[in-house]
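Q: Structure tokens for this one, please.
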Amino acid sequence: VPRDVVLNPAGTKAYVIDDNVNVRVVSLTATPTATSIPISGAQMVAVSPSGGLVYVTNGGSFTGPGGGTITVINGTTNAVTATIGGMTSPQDAVFSPDGTRAYVVNANISSSGVGNGFLSVINTANNTIVATAGLGPAPGADDAVSKDGRFVYVGGDLASTNTLLVVNSTT
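A: Here is the predicted structure, written as tokens:
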């Protein structure tokens, strides 16, 4: 059962999370083909504005502190090029409009419940976490970036809070 589907900016590839164990890269050409990349615990996928980077969040539920990761895929070759640690129940990732930063919502879910979540800011040039921002209890699983890259929006739905969190990405 597909969990998440995202197209690259050119519309030539679809990245499909399949049963939390694979990312299927589907070529959307006249003769479609598919490549499977095994990624255990795959949750959500994000593609950079250039299409050159693909981030897959892993271990979205009950992973405990530091138990989740981001798998980095080269959008041209479909090769896994890096794994970024330091996440706690990563849910969704989104890239800044210029592709230099990625923002990852960490729900901080454990077997004892939902803790205070946080937003990880990743420098995409070297795939390192450069900042974190607290999101409070039960941040949502989705985020978005404003067109100018100034704000990151996070839905607060894991505890039915019906809130929208706004993070200023410039501070």
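A few notes: The two ends are 39 Å apart (CA to CA). The longest strand covers residues 128-137.
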